[in-house]
Amino acid sequence: MEIKAAGRVKAGVLEAGYSSHGVNFDAKSGRIVFPNNERHGYTALVSNSAEEPYITTTHWVAEFGPNYIVVKQHALDTGGAGRTFPASDFTFAIIIV
Length: 97
Prior knowledge:
Elements: E1 2-10, E2 13-14, E3 24-26, E4 31-33, E5 42-48, E6 57-64, E7 68-75, E8 84-86, E9 90-96
Antiparallel strand pairs: 1-2, 1-9, 3-4, 4-7, 5-9, 6-7, 7-8
């Protein structure tokens, strides 16, 4: 196994000091693009940010592509049904299997 890419998104911005080289994040769509020219199989991990005092959303990978994932979040409150939107505060890792 090899960690191909990793990073942290805070307030919808990919933090430069906490992200792998060649990784891009589009806040509007939640798409993370990473280098994978060899088209290796991979596993993607996402985690809610631990730096917030309260976690009010959950994050997951909604779509996989050969060199990208799309991360979404959903509200955890009782009115959360149907409230799915691009992720804004999370960490991620792309692991080559």
